[in-house]
Amino acid sequence: MSAAVLLLARLLLLPVGAADGGVSPPLRVQSRVTPAQVQLGEPFVFEVVVTHDRAQRYELPPPGDLGAFDLVSVARDRVDGPDSSTTTFQVTLQGFELGKQRVPTLELELTDPGGTMKMPVSGPEVELVSALPADAPSGADLYDVRKPEQLPVRTWRLLWALLAALALVGLAFLVVRVLRRPKPVVAEPERPKTPLHVRATQALDALAAQNLPAQGRTKEFYFSLSEIVRGYLGERYGFEALESTTPELLDALRARRTPGLPMAELSAFANESDFVRYAKASPGPDACKAALETGYRIVHLTTVGEAATPATGGAHGA
After folding, report:
1. pTM surpassing 0.85?
2. Measuring CA to CA, which residue among 226, 217, 318 is closest to residue 269?
3. 76-99 pLDDT, tens digit each
4. HEC states along 65-115?
5. How far apart are CA 277 and CA 275, in angstroms?
């Protein structure tokens, strides 16, 4: 089998409702190994591509005993689309046993609003071949290492002359570089960055000007509003909010000092946004207007709360 041939992607059928918390299975799971034939000790990639709901998050905990394989590295990449997300894992391995070997099963960890579950992904086969060429002699015919032999050296003068010439060339090169170096350029002072609450308010104003609910684009309105509020909270309190589920978002905020943050309103807003984005609810114009006003309130109250509260001590947001 040629080393450039790729294994075909295989769909894995997962049982629906496998977790007690009502966790939904992924939309599609594909896996392949590249290349299908490698030499002993040569790295190859076991790739797993999971297409799933945007509210779900997939992680790969450190694998345990890999048998005939060693783990080199693990890379994770996520791409969000309008209706679904794609998470790709690239696990680089090395094999150390000849013949066709099955890649160990990976156990992904799935988290969504319904809970968590473990999802095994079976590994395909990879063929491990010897690193020696086909016409190499067998072990019995290999020759031993020869004993050290003395090599006569008549003089070192030529070597010293070459080193001196190289030193002179290097010195001349450095002198030319110094003489021709450009004059230092004074950098312009960096302009102050627009404050966070101003940028968030401008984004909310731009969303309100689009008037998406009046055009029947309610789901798009809630997607944009949720990203503005999550992006603001993540930047203000220093954590990854856009990739977090609603429970992860609320837990991260409760673990931080958030003076002025209306937690009850934020929790209701986040749950309502999830209901509209993923349960395909269609709230009316009044509900959309109230959600937008909640976004303005969160920005305003946290900005005032940060300015009025000392840097140490204090309590969490209401």
Report:
1. no
2. 226
3. 999 999 989 999 999 999 888 888
4. CCCCEEEEEEEEEEEECCCCEEEEEEEEEEECCCEEEECCCEEEEEEECCE
5. 6
